[in-house]
């Protein structure tokens, strides 16, 4: 059942979630690209800007800079508490800060909001130069386009070479693209729960999520950003999130956590919900208030198109370009991006050590939850000097 991702106790969800002009900036800063961004498709995207956050201080020439890249529904707020402009605490808060794995007394950490996102960077909910929302006119993006925008951010910050580029899931796709397309600017590499190319199954999961959004009457062909609260594609976005959430967790964890128990006070035989359904509804309701459906479609399409070997003679040949020190890690219970994909990367990257496998019941989300294990990998890659 496609339940409405709302509650009687809450106001109607906005037509488009995410950060919008006039909202508190929070910790964000912005960089505007000097001219149109040339895209892999041959078109150009004008008026591009990226939102980003930083922690620590840059050394001369930015030699201590580390690029941290977020996953699909993440953003630049990798560390810090919730507050005005930031509805959630930092998604890797346990890893970034003084004395933590990414010790900001030593490292200068930069986390951008991805191009196509909805937390301050240019995306479908942004305004075009003519003052209208991009909506369905926003161009198709690839991971390579997103990295080109991040390279422009690095230029603006005066960073010629990152000490490390770190990312998991969609962030790992961008980290890998950095290493292959700009190896001279990537000092070292940490890839978590990510593939060299999206598989047929991963494309299938992404495609059904996109379909859930586009078949919502509130989608309006992608032109919904000026609609009234409650009339945007929040049902479709909520359904996409439910689908995704199942793939992010393991069968064993869902079984141990919820079993077949009904939600207290609700009988499934009378139209009530199982506890696991309530869990999915909760995640759907949260996402529609902080994320834009158009960005979800744009970013999922970019992930589906991810193939580091495209136009480079295949994956193996492309990965030979990435000669920097590298660590590759998978989650043993990850059914969305299984460890076999990280094993392929570890075998083909010239300077990758053996594959690291994080034991976790949490499935794909383990790269966000198992911060102790991830912190150990960061320290191994970037020992404090």
Task: Describe the structure in your own words.
The chain is an alpha/beta fold. The chain has one domain: 3-Layer(aba) Sandwich (Rossmann fold), CATH 3.40.50.1820. Helix content is 31%, strand content 11%. Strands 1-4-6-5-7-8-9-10 form an 8-stranded mixed beta sheet, with helices on both faces. It has a two-stranded antiparallel sheet with strand order 2-3. Helix 2 links the parallel strand 7 and strand 8. The chain starts with 28 loop residues before the first strand and ends with a helix. The N terminus is likely disordered.
Tally of DSSP helical segments: 11
Mean pLDDT: 95
Number of structurally distinct domains? 1
What is the spatial order of strands in the main beta sheet? 1-4-6-5-7-8-9-10
Series of secondary-structure elements, N-terminal to C-terminal: EEEEEEHEHEHHHHHHEHEHH
Q: Termini separation (Å)?
A: 55 Å
CATH topology call: Rossmann fold
Query: Helix- and strand-based class?
Result: alpha/beta
Which percent range fits the helix content?
25-40%
Number of strands: 10
Overall morphology: globular
CATH class: Alpha Beta
């Amino acid at each position: 059942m496609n339940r409405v991702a709302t509650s009687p106790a809450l106001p109607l969800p906005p037509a488009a979630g995410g950060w919008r002009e006039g909202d508190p900036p929070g910790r964000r800063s912005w960089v505007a690209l000097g001219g149109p961004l040339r895209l892999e498709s041959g078109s150009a995207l004008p008026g591009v800007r990226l939102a980003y956050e930083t922690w620590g201080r840059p050394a001369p020439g930015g030699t201590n800079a580390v690029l941290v890249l977020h996953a699909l529904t993440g953003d630049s707020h990798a560390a810090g508490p919730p507050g005005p402009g930031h509805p959630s605490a930092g998604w890797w808060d346990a890893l970034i800060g003084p004395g933590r794995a990414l010790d900001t007394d030593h490292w200068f950490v930069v986390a951008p909001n991805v191009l196509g996102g909805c937390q301050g960077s240019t995306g479908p909910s942004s305004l075009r130069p003519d003052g209208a929302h991009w909506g369905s006119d926003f161009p198709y993006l690839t991971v390579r386009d997103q990295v080109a925008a991040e390279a422009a951010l690095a230029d603006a910050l005066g960073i010629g070479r990152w000490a490390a580029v770190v990312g998991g899931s969609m962030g790992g796709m961008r980290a890998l693209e950095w290493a292959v397309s700009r190896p001279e600017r990537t000092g070292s590499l940490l890839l978590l729960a990510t593939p060299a190319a999206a598989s047929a199954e991963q494309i299938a999961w992404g495609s059904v999520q996109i379909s859930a959004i586009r078949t919502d009457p509130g989608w309006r062909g992608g032109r919904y950003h000026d609609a009234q609260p409650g009339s945007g594609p929040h049902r479709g976005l909520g359904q996409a999130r439910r689908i995704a959430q199942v793939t992010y967790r393991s069968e064993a964890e869902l079984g141990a956590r919820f079993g077949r128990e009904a939600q207290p006070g609700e009988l499934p035989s009378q139209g009530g919900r199982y506890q696991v359904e309530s869990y999915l509804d909760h995640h759907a309701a949260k996402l529609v208030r902080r994320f834009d459906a158009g960005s979800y479609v744009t970013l999922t399409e970019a992930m589906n198109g991810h193939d580091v070997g495209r136009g480079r003679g295949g994956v193996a040949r492309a990965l030979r370009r990435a000669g920097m020190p590298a660590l590759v890690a998978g989650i043993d219970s990850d059914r969305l991006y299984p460890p076999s994909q990280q094993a392929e990367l570890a075998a083909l990257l010239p300077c990758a050590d053996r594959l690291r496998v994080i034991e976790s019941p949490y499935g794909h989300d383990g790269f966000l939850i198992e911060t102790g294990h991830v912190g150990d990998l960061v320290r191994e890659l970037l020992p404090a000097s």
